Amino acid sequence: MKRPAKHTGRRPGRNTTRALIEDTAREQFAKLGYDRTSMRRVALEAGVDPALVSHYFGTKLDLFIAVVELPIDPGALIDHVTSGEHDSVGIRLATAVLEILDDEVNRRPTVGMIRAATSEPEAARLVREFLTRNIIVPIAQRLETDHAEYRAGLVMSQVLGLTLARYIIGIEPLASHPRERIAVDLGATLQRYLLGDLSHTLPIDQKGADHELAPRHVRHALPARQATVGRPAS
Amino acid sequence: MKRPAKHTGRRPGRNTTRALIEDTAREQFAKLGYDRTSMRRVALEAGVDPALVSHYFGTKLDLFIAVVELPIDPGALIDHVTSGEHDSVGIRLATAVLEILDDEVNRRPTVGMIRAATSEPEAARLVREFLTRNIIVPIAQRLETDHAEYRAGLVMSQVLGLTLARYIIGIEPLASHPRERIAVDLGATLQRYLLGDLSHTLPIDQKGADHELAPRHVRHALPARQATVGRPAS
DNA sequence: TAGTGAATTCAGCACGTACTGAATTCGGCG
DNA sequence: CGCCGAATTCAGTACGTGCTGAATTCACTA
User: Is A94 within 8 Å of A183 (Cβ atoms)?
Assistant: First the structure.
């Protein structure tokens, strides 16, 4: 009956364990992504029994949901960016984004969010909802242009792509280029996406229909086994 | 000594197993990414014993390396895009990219590549080398502009970002917008990245230094627990 | 036709995972 | 103080993972 246990039972002192787990989990998800983060590792890192994690948060996905966040206050960012001269919102946004992401502390959760979104479909849904609700829509409201949500989506795509290319994959020379120059080039793009002329303003027949693709270069999967990454199979 | 085995030993008929495993693995990596693809599942899907996968390809990473490829012939794509009028290479490239990615068959390996690159650092290195060697550098050579590799990197960032936003995360309305319109808006960006004026051509004091960030909206990680995805912890 | 070596499978090891049930200890309240 | 319930840990279940060694069967060649 009385199995010899060593130091089980409630801990003395104040009650901070749950928050501790939450912080540790956030850190791990950010650093490793969803798949590569294990509940055991979170518990270990938090100096806590693995069972406590399940106890407090339920499943791994529940834990993830309870924990993901962005390194910025979207509202304040949007305020800062959209105040000031209209023809420089692009570069303001680009500069802000690059300053945030160039700081490793802030970059972590962002990268983690992307990692999670690409590996767990359920996480992708959550990220989508989060981005839409907290960033896309607010930006759309602030800008009094047409198709604001579409514009915001284009912006998100360029920002996400920069994160992927510069910070995760590390494509050169983009990865080691000075922040200020990239901000200028990126800023011009964001400016156009946010406030410039888009395809909607063009007449139908200029939408690029005459640029359809001579489909000679798409391989359609089956034959071809040449463009292989790394060394060929041994 | 003679353990009763049922149908072990060499299979009758022609010898296609290795290729079979390779194809199945490619499919799985593309669909699931690196972490979520298991060698056992590959073997099961290929109707083959798990040991055969290790037998032929060694470690999981070896298998991955032997298998990743892009759905296009980069050379032909580059030819197609860079031939024709200079001021329409942007939209040609954008259209080509969108046509390729809108086809689910072609999209798979691309998405898989991104998945893998975001979850496995070693895979990210391979993807980086592949993209650089087979896409960035050729484009850089074709365009007789300055800073060609930097330009190509910007292009990659926007293309990768589009893939992430439109196809993986599914940000609306970007995800369901007609291909042709996006091609126009994206094409203008790519055009500028490829052949337009970049920050290098500007005098130093216009590089945006006066746009530094009032750093009020970056949270610097520690406090704040408000901008949470999904429902708060139960 | 006999023999060799490649192809294939089985069974399993060692480990990591998510998660659970019961036991134990403590904080706080009556 | 006495007690209830929350907090915590232990030990374990059931399963999935990458990978290996030996045994078996077939194809091919000498």
Answer: yes
